[in-house]
């Protein structure tokens, strides 16, 4: 459940997965010897593995993000492993969505009590063992998100080992394969430079094994199949360029459960990522609201982006201000201030734009790539070009022909900065690529790479990545491999983490 809670909060594009990646990277704060390997008795027919009907109803309400309704179903339920697990799913969801640091200590103490109860329990079967490992993973997520990286790394190490033991002892228990597969995938997709450390910790990662475990949990009935289906679909959409399948799944589930706020969020997010701004805004305006639902401030931040793409600067400003008013976390604050700057600057309000520019540096963290990009904009004081900025926003919004028309008005001069000289052909390449004109896209991607040299901007590495995808789709594996390796070769740019991960996974597909 921790993974879906993180998705709800929008912490990853690669963004939906940022907390999982943070948990793994947090290992770098620890150095422990590898654990000894234990032998586990295999039980092919595990007992006590299913949630009761009362627990299942509570879990369904957690997924709908209706905490009051979930608590009603849990009220009076016996303190079995299933009840303890669903109660923890509810609490970690509330904590990670709210990002309220004042609730952190009480939440971790409650997790410790649940773990102690499970340790003392004589309840047989896979569910107890799974609940113990899953709650420990929730605790790891909470600890890392709220700045306790050392404790979080230790908790994640424990969770991984415990979940591995559940799969070894109960190979037919699919929920454990869901969580273990997710962790195996992310560890396996980390850059090579981390591998020695993970090996030292005794936490093996494998993209292939992780996907296999996830698919087992996603394609066969179990209490947590919906989670597994969503994780697998979003993973394949983000890293394997399968957007249609992910959107189709989310649209189908949303039609079946229009009162589910999680599915509404995922629908908006998928439509936004696939540049369908009008549909995404319609889904945002139709999303379920009311006192029964957990407030989800990040929805307003997404809406602010969508409105910015359309050139509705005042409406975008209101949406981001609403986000900042409601949100108690530290992620996305710099990004929101940057978007507020863009709205004011593009609207011609220089004084207000400067106020928001200073706000970038005033709060928030630089863990996420979006926030890091905003901070670099503030620190480097590079002036943006209005024409290129409008074109970028139009492309992000799916208005590709309008973007090309905008780019036609861009004029190079002897004083044009290198960044703008690179951005102009890159934006043309993106517009043509997304319009389905790969030959024109190829030309401008290649031009971007040729002009860039070793410039520390993301335009050339992203061009190499996209050229790799184009040649991969055409079956030209050797050329695709060369471009994916080129994307990895750039040493410093704004989106290096996500670009490198995607290139690395694409190379694995070509093996």
Automatic annotation (TrEMBL):
Keywords: TPR repeat. This is DUF3808 domain-containing protein. TPR repeats lie at residues 461-494. Gene3D superfamilies: Tetratricopeptide repeat domain. It comes from Hymenobacter fodinae. The lineage of its organism: Bacteria, Pseudomonadati, Bacteroidota, Cytophagia, Cytophagales. It comes from the Bacteria. InterPro entries: TPR-like_helical_dom_sf (IPR011990), TPR_rpt (IPR019734). Coiled coil: none annotated.
């Amino acid at each position: 459940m921790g993974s879906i809670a993180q998705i709800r909060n929008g912490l990853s594009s690669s963004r939906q997965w940022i907390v999982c990646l943070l948990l793994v990277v947090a290992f770098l704060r620890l150095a422990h010897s590898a654990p000894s390997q234990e032998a586990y008795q295999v039980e092919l027919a595990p007992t006590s593995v299913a949630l009761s009907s009362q627990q299942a109803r509570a879990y369904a309400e957690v997924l709908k993000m209706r905490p009051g309704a979930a608590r009603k179903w849990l009220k009076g339920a016996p303190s079995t492993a299933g009840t303890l697990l669903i109660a923890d799913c509810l609490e970690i969801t509330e904590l990670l969505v709210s990002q309220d640091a004042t609730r952190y200590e009480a939440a971790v103490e409650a997790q410790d009590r649940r773990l102690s109860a499970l340790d003392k329990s004589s309840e047989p079967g896979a569910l107890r063992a799974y609940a113990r490992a899953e709650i420990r993973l929730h605790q790891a997520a909470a600890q890392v998100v709220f700045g306790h990286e050392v404790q979080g790394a230790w908790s994640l190490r424990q969770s991984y080992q415990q979940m591995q033991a559940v799969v070894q002892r109960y190979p037919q228990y699919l929920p454990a394969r869901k969580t273990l597969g997710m962790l195996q995938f992310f560890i396996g997709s980390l850059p090579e430079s981390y591998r020695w450390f993970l090996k030292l910790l005794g936490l093996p990662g494998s993209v292939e094994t992780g996907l296999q475990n996830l698919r087992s949990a996603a394609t066969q009935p179990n209490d947590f199949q919906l989670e597994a289906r969503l994780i697998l679909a979003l993973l394949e959409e983000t890293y394997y360029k399968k957007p249609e399948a992910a959107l189709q799944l989310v649209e189908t589930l949303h039609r079946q459960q229009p009162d589910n706020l999680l599915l509404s969020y995922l629908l908006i997010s998928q439509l936004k990522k696939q540049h369908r701004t009008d549909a995404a805004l319609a889904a945002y305006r139709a999303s379920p609201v009311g006192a029964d639902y957990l407030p989800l401030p990040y929805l307003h931040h997404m809406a602010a982006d969508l409105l910015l793409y359309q050139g509705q600067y005042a409406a975008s400003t209101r949406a981001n201000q609403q986000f900042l008013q409601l949100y108690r976390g530290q992620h996305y604050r710099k990004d929101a201030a940057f978007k507020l700057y863009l709205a004011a600057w593009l609207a011609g309000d220089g004084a207000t734009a400067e106020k928001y520019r200073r706000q970038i540096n005033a709060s928030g963290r630089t863990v996420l790539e979006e926030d890091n990009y905003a901070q670099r904009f503030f620190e480097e004081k590079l002036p943006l070009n209005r024409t290129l900025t409008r074109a970028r926003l139009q492309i992000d919004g799916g208005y590709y022909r309008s973007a090309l028309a905008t780019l036609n008005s861009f004029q190079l001069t002897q004083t044009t900065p290198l960044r703008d000289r690179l951005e102009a052909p890159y934006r043309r390449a993106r517009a043509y690529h997304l319009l389905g004109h790969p030959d024109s896209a190829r030309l401008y991607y290649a031009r971007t790479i040729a002009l860039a040299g070793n410039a520390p901007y993301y335009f050339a590495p992203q061009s190499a990545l996209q050229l790799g995808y184009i040649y991969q789709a055409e079956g030209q594996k050797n050329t695709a491999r060369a471009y994916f390796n080129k994307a990895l070769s750039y040493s410093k740019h704004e989106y290096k983490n996500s670009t490198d991960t995607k290139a690395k996974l694409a190379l694995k597909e070509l093996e």
